[in-house]
Amino acid sequence: MEYAVPLLGFGGALFGIVFWMFDVQIDVRISMLGCVLASWVLAYLAWIRPRKDIVALTTPIYSFIFLGFPLDTFSVVVLEVLYAASLTILLVRLKYRFGAPSAPVPDKKELAEPLNSYVKKTGDALLSTGPEPAHSAAVVFVRFAEGEFLAAARGAESAIAHLSDASAPRALQCAFAIVKEQAERYDKSFLQPDTFRVFPPEDASVLAKIPDPKFGKPEEYDAALENALLLLFAGAWNMSEKDHPHLLKCQAFAQKLLVP
To answer: Where do the domains of the chain lie?
Structure first.
């Protein structure tokens, strides 16, 4: 379906150019239907991703606004070409910045590899996690996977306020803090801050991705969030069985976090 966006957008623009060049006696705005359809396809592709791109989701609104303006033939053709190019740029942005679409979840109650191995590896370390922190970890992970970053940040903040060393290991508390910090920024800006929270060296045994000393700041920032989300997933899976159905629906997102 990704190919449909530029094909429909520029295809409609091509018809508009033909109508204009040969002075076809027809409302040239009919050719904008290609861009309208392309914008709907783009919005659908944005909707099926774990992280939602608001700009791509709202493109159909702009296409109808353009259709409503009384423009001359040449202006319509120029507008179509520019709009088709914009949709194509948004498609590339969606593909490389917001990840792949959610994969169908297998109809089973077990996690797929390598996620299953990681969750089992953390079992003993997260054994002291209480039912409430484990449930909070599930809620925060699912909210983040669904692209509800502000809700994930608020959930992590609430969990931190009620956590203690007796109810959850320090590594899990650190994971909540990292997700809170970065999820708040996701909701406002994707720019990396100069300083940010990371896991201390003593937590390396429970991390899915061991930070490489050669990492620069961007890689270190991304690794901190990926490790935090995966640790929340593991804590929730190991200690909150009631949340398994929700976590299974988001395991495709967790699997992608494990990719080097």
So the answer is: 4-97, 115-258
- What is the pTM assigned to this prediction? 0.59
In this predicted structure, the answer to whether residue 105 has a pLDDT above a threshold of 80 is: no
Question: From CA 144, how far away is CA 236, in angstroms rounded?
Answer: 14
88 sits in which H/E element: helix 73-97
Q: Are 230 and 199 in contact (CB under 8 A)?
A: no
- Burial degree of 255 (CB within 10 A; 0-12, 13-18, 19+): middle
Residues 6+ apart with CB under 8 A from 119: 111, 233, 234, 237, 238
Q: How far apart are CA 158 and CA 18, in angstroms?
A: 60
Pair of tokens at residue 191: 């720019």
CA gap 15, 150 in Å, rounded? 43
